[in-house]
Amino acid sequence: xxxxxxxxxxxxxxxxxxxxxxxxxxxxxxxxxxxxxPVALIGAFAWLxxxxxxxxxxxxxxxLAIKSWxxxxxxxxxxxxxxxxxxxxxxxxxxxxxxxxxxLRQHQKDIPIAGIFAMASYVLIFLHDVRGRDGIIDMxxxxxxxxxxxxxxxxxxxxxxxxxxxxxxxxxxxxxxxDIMSRAFDNLKPLLIVLVLTFLIHVIYxxxxxxxxxxxxxxxxxxxxxxxxxxxTTIIMSIVITLSAWLGFPELLNVPSSxxxxxxxxxxxxALTHKSNWEIPYPFTPSALYNGFANxxxxxxxxxxxxxxxxxxxxxNLQRVAVASAVPVxxxxxxxxxxxxxxxxxxxxxxxxxxxxxxxxxxxxxxxLLHVIPPLAYPIPVNTPGILGxxxxxxxxxxxxxxxxxxxxxxxxxxxPFVKLADRVDQQLADKRKGGDDRETK
Length: 442
Prior knowledge:
The chain is an all-alpha fold. The protein folds into 2 domains: 2-23 and 229-441, no CATH class; 87-217, no CATH class. It has helices at residues 11-21, 24-53, 59-63, 66-69, 73-86, 91-106, 112-125, 147-164, 177-186, 188-210, 213-225, 231-246, 261-274, 286-293, 302-312, 316-330, 335-340, 350-369, 389-393, 398-441. Helix 6 (91-106) runs antiparallel to helix 7 (112-125) and helix 12 (231-246) runs antiparallel to helix 18 (350-369). 42% of the residues are buried.
């Protein structure tokens, strides 16, 4: 069955993907992701410890009743969560720094101040005090949600320094202080160009915050999303969420359990009063369908992707990424996998990440409509493993768990040819680099 999807052996397709991978910006983007993979991995485990174990609302914290036997849980929750805040929670400025340095290396230049200034510029863009002390820092702009913006800022600043900057390596300790200072003054021109551009963007965003445009937009979206749901909305939201993650805005949009709260409360009230959830009034709410059947391992059904990598990939480093990311992905935290497997803006993975969540929801909806499985009416703890979500949300109906396993197996089968295609592309890139090195040696 899997061999029928032998498009991964198509030489023309592989060649086009190799060319795409060789584009200057894509090279910088992918190397930035690989550079920040350890940061994302540490942040993911910090998230798991804080949100899954140390929170009474978390999956393990709820099961183990941590609140009853560990009175200091709140203190340790915040302490561990601080690790998340300085890793994944601040990864966009790190991306600006890494992207700027990699862009300069791409142009055979080494200007350390460029990376530092790229990071500072990114922080400045979204740093505002126009609403008083409480409005100085909005951390959402510094987190992984805006990762691709950090890469773009760093890439642009790297290009400016590559064009107007002067080589200023400071790792040569034989250089005299006056020589180092002279080279620093040589880079004042690109510094001023970057500062002016950054300040202009900073002012534009300050105006937006002054007139509370961002607040009005977010409130408008909230009001729109909290209207009565429909099946088309559910499918569209799934596609938008997955596409935003692929574009480098992972989980900028999500489907919180509180969305369409009126429908959720009506479903829960019906299930509790009738002691059954088979005939709830709203069986196809987005939070139930998406979080229940389209979120196995996070956005893009990435639990299936991890298993497919471990099953068929021949790339040792990719397998190591999958092993390291397996536990976070099991609890629906897939940031390490997004970076380590370079999924962002990677055309190889666009189709499966977009279509598999929709496929899972359509199949589950059909089975609910046919009364094969009950709809999901019960709330589940935060970061419940995606594969267990339908079992818990249905009130313990084991057939929903069987359906989840079957869907996961299908998802794995679909991901396998794409993993093989990624292997072919990586191998050709490695061969090209090796050929280039051989020619240089000769």
